[in-house]
Amino acid sequence: QAAVKAVPDARSDLVRVLVAAGAVEEAEKAVAGIDGAESEFLHALILEAKGNVEPAIKALEAALEADPAHV
């Protein structure tokens, strides 16, 4: 069961690595299935990487609203 619980964490890590590598389209696909504040945070990273700063800020605000301790 621990491995199943680790899958979302691994997917989040994958999204971060893809964004850092400039593979934004792949990161957008990998973020599917991640919920809550983590999803909003990862969407913010993707949006920022695409140069969409204002939507990225809104996504970060949504992440903070969903879970103030997350970001």
Task: Describe this entry's structure for a reader.
The chain is 76% helix and 0% strand. The chain starts with a helix and ends in a 5-residue tail after the last helix. The chain has four helices and no strands. α1 (2-20) packs parallel to α3 (36-49) and α3 runs antiparallel to α4 (53-66). The chain is an all-alpha fold and 71 residues long.
Structural class: mainly alpha
Oligomeric state: single chain
Strand content: under 5%
Q: Which parts are unreliable, with pLDDT below 50 for 5 consecutive residues or more? A: none
- The helix content is over 70%
Total helices: the number is 4
Give the C-alpha Rg: 12 Å
User: How many strands appear in the DSSP assignment?
Assistant: 0
Task: Summarize model confidence as the mean pLDDT.
Answer: 90
Distance between the termini: 26 Å
What kind of sheet is the major sheet?
none
Order of helices and strands: HHHH
Any idea what the shape is?
Answer: globular
Fill in the keyword field for this structure:
mainly alpha; globular
List the helices and strands and how they pair.
Elements (H helix, E strand, L loop, with lengths): L1 H19 L3 H7 L5 H14 L3 H14 L5
Helix pairs in contact: 1-2, 1-3, 3-4
